[in-house]
Amino acid sequence: MSKKTKVHQLGEGAHKCDAKLRVIGNGDIDVNVVRAERCDALSVAKTYRIEQCGFSMAKVEAAETFQLKSIDLLQWQTKPARPPAKGKIKTVTSDIYANVFISKYRAETLPKQLEVEETAQMGTLSTAKVPLSKLKQLTAHPLVRQVALGQGLRDPNPVISTGKFSNPGPIIREVKHANLHKNGKGVLVGIIDVQGFDFAHPDFVVNGKTRFEAIWDMGGEADGTSPQDYGRVISRTQMNKALAANVGAPATQLEPQSQMDFGSHGTHVASIAAGNAGIAREATIAGVLISLGPEDGDRRKSFYDSTRIAHAVDWLMKVGEDLSMPVSINISLGTNGHAHDSSAPINRWIDAWLATPGRSVCVAAGNAGQEKAETPDDVGFIMGRIHTSGKISAAGLDLDIDWTVAGSDGRDYSENELEIWFSAQDKIDVSVRDPAGRTYGPVEPLEFIENQRLPDGTFISIYNDLYHEANGANYIGIFLSPNFKAAKPIGIAAGQWTVRLHGRDIRDGRFDGWIERDDPSPLPPEPEQPRRWRFPSFFSERSNVDRSSISTLACGERVVAVANLDKARESINVTSSQGPTREGRNKPDIAAPGTDIVAANGFSSPADAWVGMTGTSMASPFVCGTVALMLATRPELTAAQMIGIIQRSATPIVGKSFAWENDAGFGQIDPASCVLEAQRLNLPRKDRTQ
After folding, report:
1. Between β-strands 96-104 and 144-149, what pairing exists: parallel, antiparallel or unpaired?
2. Which position among 57, 92, 623, 650 has the lowest Cβ density within 10 Å, counted as fewest Cβ atoms?
């Protein structure tokens, strides 16, 4: 490729944007409108259909007599309306907004003239909502060091147990030494989750009143109660009023949320951590619903990314402060982007909160641990195989990575992303070969290919960067993008894409790569066309390395990362993601029961009030509830102390030792022992001075 550096609409400040943001920021606005349908960190401000009758666009925009109708661009592209007899119809998008993390040189607020809405701040790091049209202006400002797109959140996909279930009974998750831990009384358990919180479920109601202090519905219609300019907060008073109304309608219908899914994931998780039959059954509960907003069919109007996690943590910590309570938070959501070494902005944000005593965050390790099919019809490995690693032993040598793109009709209609991280000591060239045998690159350090159109009409972007701002490591990013602008979308060619790494200058040679996942989902059907799907890509069995598949959110320094224990089999569930982190830290920390866990079935009938689910999503709230008991025993515990106690109190998995294991952490959590160890810190120290 040419040695010249391309500078597109982002200008010279493009290097301040992370790779994904560069692909978007230097992309076509019409493409980005459609891209926002799947990119969780993008939204469309307004899309209009403007009927022109011989006037210039400037005049049309200023005229009050012309008809402006909000439309769905995807529908407009596939099913255009009949144009008026005179003039023509033109589609205009006012702007595309991106949720980002901004790293700054100083802990200052950006000037208002940048027209960038900073939504929260943590030291020199802030979250912001940025119009793409202002991104060039933002990166040119001397206060700005780096701008990173929010990481999309993967929807939890627990396995639902078959059969009917009755109340699990309080004894199931009862923890000894209630005189010490008081069943979590005086502690706030915060649940950041999806699909709604059934505050009226019997597992959360005592004497006709809910145990929820508040629910922040991020997708709800803004009414001034939210800490941000989106969503609404439902208070305990409002929930109890709905419970007392007794007008024949369910209380959750009287105080509705933007998501109230049958079998609600958030309800099930909250039930395990702090329901009446949960671990911390007298704790106060607060929920944050990470929601896509009302079911209006327009995904492009909402955000669903890691900046929302930052805002959720901020709010829950504030609720704890207002109640004068220590806080134990659970996050059973995940993402696979970035370096898996705690340097991602969301990791830094959460770790900063956890520097203060009396706070803890438990995170599900993820469900990407399955590396191959267990039965002939088992395709579970598709949700695994997200990690590869290897070593280039010397300069001049090549190493190939097999990257499989899946598609139901030979095409994948989702974007595919692969990130490779390696030592700053090394310099590596990269090239990509498509299924047809065409090669793109090599791309040398400090070179890139950006939004290059392939012969089939799709696009490829390759970046080879040195000394990443977040961690000083070197970075390669590869992005395959469908052609969203075509009259009929063109998906990525399915099959094996080969990534070749060439050692230019090798001192260490080790590398790790992760695929940022999208979830399998059907595309809208088209007349007389076969059903089309978006599928996640994955590494071949040859290239996949099962370890280090742990979710990015679980890689934080101070969070508790939790694996899924299949208690019946006395082993770790095959789907549970594994550690360590990229730089070798011991994550996950602990394993907890997460297989066939019976808890509240949200928004269900009394006959179906309980359901069994499997996943690290179920294991993490078990630990979150245990932490609440520890904080009730000793509220001044630091996050680091709680991790230490959890590790020390663990019991080995059958056949294992006390040593850390990449799938089980330090073993199975023992809640009673955790409480006793926490209590031990309350005892007076013995002076042995002679």
Report:
1. antiparallel
2. 57
- Spatial distance between the Cα atoms of 483 and 486, rounded to a whole number of angstroms: 6
Inter-residue long-range contacts of 341-344, CB under 8 Å, 24+ positions, other chains counted: 341/421, 341/471, 341/473, 341/555, 341/581, 341/582, 341/583, 341/585, 342/555, 342/556, 342/557, 342/581, 342/585, 343/470, 343/471, 344/151, 344/306, 344/470, 344/552, 344/555
pLDDT tens, residue by residue, 437-455: 999 999 999 999 999 999 9
**What CATH number matches the domain at 185-198+255-286+312-369+551-680, 3.30.420.40, 3.40.50.200, 1.10.10.60, 2.40.100.10?**
3.40.50.200
Q: Is 2.60.40.1930 the CATH number for 391-539?
A: no
d(CA 241, CA 246): 9
Q: DSSP label at 67?
A: -
Task: Check for a shared fold between 185-198+255-286+312-369+551-680 and 391-539.
Answer: no
CA–CA dist 650, 562 (Å, integer)? 12
CA atoms within 13 A on the CB side of 263: 12
Name residue 439's beta-bridge partners.
Answer: 433
Residue 679: CB atoms within 10 Å:
15
pLDDT tens-digit series, residues 356-409: 999 999 999 999 988 888 777 777 777 889 999 999 999 999 999 999 998 777
- CA 38, CA 412: separation in Å to the nearest integer? 13
